[in-house]
Design goal:
By secondary structure, the chain is of the alpha/beta class. The chain has one domain: Rossmann fold (3-Layer(aba) Sandwich), CATH 3.40.50.720. The chain is built from 8 helices and 7 strands; from the N terminus they run βαβαβαβαβαβαααβ. It has a 7-stranded parallel sheet with strand order 3-2-1-4-5-6-7, with helices on both faces. This is Gluconate 5-dehydrogenase. Keywords: Oxidoreductase. It comes from Shimia isoporae.
């Protein structure tokens, strides 16, 4: 087999939440590695701007991933537009910062709907197309999947459930030739994250103090890890969660 085992030449990826942040960082690395990408999101202007930056290898589809019919349409659109599907990236997410006592059932449900149910639905609907090309699914977990972080009880519950999705999907999709893994990002620099932490110096100091490599990660750090897990270099890797966190999950 010719070419680098780490490249994605000829691969087709569907990336939810691909218009900005980690999703866009993954899209950039995929395109640079030879893949074509379909970005999914709710804000057309953001998606259009992302596609313009990515070039001819990228397209977008406006959809709410919590809507099952929209998920089905997104998968169908990708297959119709590019001729198949090799990689599904379940990256779309929302966030909620409230104390446990202030968090309502509706609050928790809104986070579960995006991080867990949408990822489950997209994976289920994409699996037949992925199986045709022995593709892979990548979920985005979190430090909250492992650490006791205050004020994010709903998010922590959702990102912990993502670990179960990885294991369950790997067990059932493996016999179909489809791999399932996840990345657990550490604290990644973005306009939103930087603004939030700059307004909360004690929280920022705590994050940096427990990150052995120091500083914040970049979206491309997640993008290159996703490239590896989606490439044939990882053809015997499934059911795993890779922490890309500067050592935070194991830091003191």
């Amino acid at each position: 087999m010719t070419g680098s085992p780490f490249d994605l030449d000829g691969k087709i990826a569907l990336i939810t939440g691909g218009g900005s942040g980690i999703g866009f960082g993954i899209a950039q690395c995929f395109v640079n590695s030879g893949a074509r990408v379909l970005l999914i999101g709710q804000t057309e202007s953001k998606l259009a701007a992302a596609v313009e930056q990515l070039g001819d290898s990228a397209r977008y589809f406006v959809a709410d991933v919590t809507n099952e019919a929209a998920c089905r349409s997104a998968v169908d659109c990708c297959v119709d537009m590019f001729g198949g599907l090799d990689i599904l990236i379940n990256n779309a997410g929302n966030h909620l910062k409230k104390s446990l006592l202030e968090t309502s059932q509706a609050d928790v449900q809104s986070v579960l709907d995006v991080h867990v149910l949408a990822a489950f639905n997209l994976t289920r609907l994409a699996l037949p197309a992925l199986a045709e090309r022995e593709g892979s699914v990548l979920f985005i977990a979190s430090m909250a999947s492992y650490l006791s972080i205050p004020q994010v009880i709903g998010y922590t519950a959702a990102k912990s459930a993502v670990l179960g999705l990885v294991r369950g999907t790997a067990a059932e999709a493996g016999p179909m030739g489809v791999r399932a893994n996840a990345i657990a990002p550490g604290w990644i620099s973005s306009a939103m994250t930087d603004a939030a932490l700059n307004n909360d110096p004690p929280r920022k100091a705590k994050i940096l103090s427990r990150t052995p490599l120091g500083g914040m990660g970049e979206p491309s750090d997640i993008g290159w890890a996703a490239t590896y897990l989606s490439s044939r270099a990882a053809k015997f890797v499934t059911g795993q969660v890779l922490a890309v966190d500067g050592g935070a999950v194991s830091g003191f």
